[in-house]
């Protein structure tokens, strides 16, 4: 099969290699998927760049990308799945040598989730990380109906799904963005430009001085002070990144005296029952056509390096997806 891989960390154009590899075979409990779309996430880019703290090559050769979608073309012993079933993949490369940046991938059957017929493969390649992270950040700590949710960074891949899912779940959504164009992209009705506005003041105004019940947060370090001011007593802040300050100083007592729950989440490690719940909810929304997906075409396998650079630059609105 054709695949893209790297054998050392470094700039995408220098270390990503397109070549031929032996076809993987599905082991017991696995399915073999012909990949039709491969999603590129910041996490894939950071791994390849060696940007994770204390990073070492996890395997001598890594085929990147955890998200993808395609069709089952073979099954391992005892796997009751149909050949031809359309699926989306989660954790394709997470702690594994072979991800979705290849024509074929063998994964444990549960990591290939049925993709409704009405959802395209490119859209399916946005579900594993962006959509599931949004769902988990919103729903890990109980129902959100009738609550006010602040989604920081509503134009990001996760943030945009979070805005939609919060509204679909019956919450009032306020988001922060860096321009009116990004506000429109987020789809949220209520927004604040975090670059030129005092977010605390603006959100307090919008909420009549009450603050918010939940925060889905894209940058813990950058937003800690505003989030602390805005979260209601007993509220929950679910942070999925802190890229601007990877070791922020935690305001422990101010959070404690508001009885705040801080959730630092990593989507790769969802426990099975929670993940099933999230998958069921995504499937229901997908079948109803309730979710809008922002797909940015990244080209094909030969364009993988450019796609990585595009994700690293942040200069894109949506998930960069390679089509195979
Ligand atoms: N923990 C997990 O499981 C998990 C899952 C998914 C992603 N992540 C991480 O989350 C981060 C974002 O991923 P992504 O795919 O959503 O990236 P993305 O599509 O590039 O979006 C990032 C968004 O965050 C916004 N932003 C940045 N700083 C902000 C701030 N201080 N306040 C409000 N908004 C801010 C940006 O807005 P502007 O460009 O307009 O400033 C941009 O819209 C990455 O570091 C990624 O690795 C973690």
Chart the SSEs and their pairings.
Blueprint: E1 2-5, H1 12-15, E2 17-20, E3 30-40, H2 42-49, E4 67-75, E5 86-89, E6 104-108, E7 112-114, H3 121-124, H4 127-139, E8 148-152, H5 157-168, E9 172-177, H6 180-186, E10 190-193, H7 199-206, E11 212-217, H8 220-230, E12 231-239, H9 252-256, E13 261-264, H10 272-288, E14 295-297, H11 304-313, E15 319-323
Parallel strand pairs: 8-9, 8-11, 9-10, 11-12, 12-13, 14-15
Antiparallel strand pairs: 1-2, 3-4, 3-6, 3-15, 4-5, 5-7
Helix pairs in contact: 2-11, 4-5, 4-10, 7-8
Bound molecules: NADP nicotinamide-adenine-dinucleotide phosphate.
Q: Give helix % range.
A: 25-40%
Structural class: alpha/beta
Strand content: 25-35%
CATH class of the largest domain: Alpha Beta
Poorly predicted segments? none
The strand count comes to 15
The name CATH uses for the topology of the largest domain is: Quinone Oxidoreductase, Chain A, domain 1
Organism: Salibaculum griseiflavum
Protein name: Zinc-binding dehydrogenase
Keywords: NADP
GO molecular function: oxidoreductase activity
Description:
Helix content is 31%, strand content 25%. α8 (220-230) links the parallel β11 and β12 (231-239). It folds into 2 domains: 2-126 and 293-323, Medium-chain alcohol dehydrogenases, catalytic domain (Quinone Oxidoreductase, Chain A, domain 1), CATH 3.90.180; 130-268, NAD(P)-binding Rossmann-like Domain (Rossmann fold, 3-Layer(aba) Sandwich), CATH 3.40.50. The radius of gyration is 20 Å and the shape is globular. It has helices at residues 12-15, 42-49, 121-124, 127-139, 157-168, 180-186, 199-206, 220-230, 252-256, 272-288, 304-313; strands at 2-5, 17-20, 30-40, 67-75, 86-89, 104-108, 112-114, 148-152, 172-177, 190-193, 212-217, 231-239, 261-264, 295-297, 319-323. With 324 residues, it is of the alpha/beta class. Strands 3, 4, 5, 6, 7, 14 and 15 form a 7-stranded mixed beta sheet that branches. It is built from 11 helices and 15 strands. The mean pLDDT is 97. α2 (42-49) crosses α11 (304-313), α4 (127-139) packs across α10 (272-288) and α7 packs parallel to α8 (220-230). Bound molecules: NADP nicotinamide-adenine-dinucleotide phosphate.
């Amino acid at each position: 099969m054709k695949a893209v891989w790297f054998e050392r960390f470094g700039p995408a154009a220098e270390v990503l290699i397109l070549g031929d590899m032996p076809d993987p075979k599905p082991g017991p409990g696995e399915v073999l998927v012909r990949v039709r779309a491969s999603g590129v996430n910041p996490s894939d880019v950071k791994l390849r760049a060696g940007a994770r703290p204390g990073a070492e090559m996890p395997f001598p050769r890594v085929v990147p990308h955890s998200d993808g979608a395609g069709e089952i073309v073979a099954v391992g012993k005892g796997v009751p799945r149909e050949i031809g079933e359309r699926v989306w993949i989660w954790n394709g490369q997470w702690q594994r040598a072979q991800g979705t940046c290849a024509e074929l991938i063998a994964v444990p059957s549960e990591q290939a989730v049925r993709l409704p017929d009405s959802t395209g493969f490119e859209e399916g390649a946005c579900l594993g990380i962006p959509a599931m992270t949004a769902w988990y950040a919103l729903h890990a700590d109980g129902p959100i109906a009738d609550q006010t949710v602040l989604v920081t960074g509503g134009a990001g891949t996760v943030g945009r799904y979070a805005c939609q899912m919060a509204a679909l779940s019956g919450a009032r959504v306020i988001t922060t963005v860096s321009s009116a164009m990004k506000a429109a992209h987020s789809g949220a009705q209520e927004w604040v430009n975090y670059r030129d506005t005092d977010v605390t003041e603006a959100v307090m105004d919008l909420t009549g001085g009450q603050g918010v019940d939940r925060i889905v947060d894209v940058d813990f370090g950058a937003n800690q002070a505003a989030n602390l001011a805005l979260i209601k007593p007993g509220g929950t802040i679910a942070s999925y990144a802190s890229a601007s300050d990877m070791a922020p100083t935690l305001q422990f007592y101010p959070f404690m005296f508001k009885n705040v729950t801080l959730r630092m989440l990593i989507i790769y490690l969802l426990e099975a029952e929670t993940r099933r719940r999230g998958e069921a909810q995504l499937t229901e929304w997908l079948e109803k056509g309730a979710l809008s997906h922002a797909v940015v075409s990244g080209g094909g396998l030969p364009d993988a390096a450019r796609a990585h650079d595009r994700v690293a630059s942040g200069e894109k609105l949506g998930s960069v997806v390679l089509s195979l």
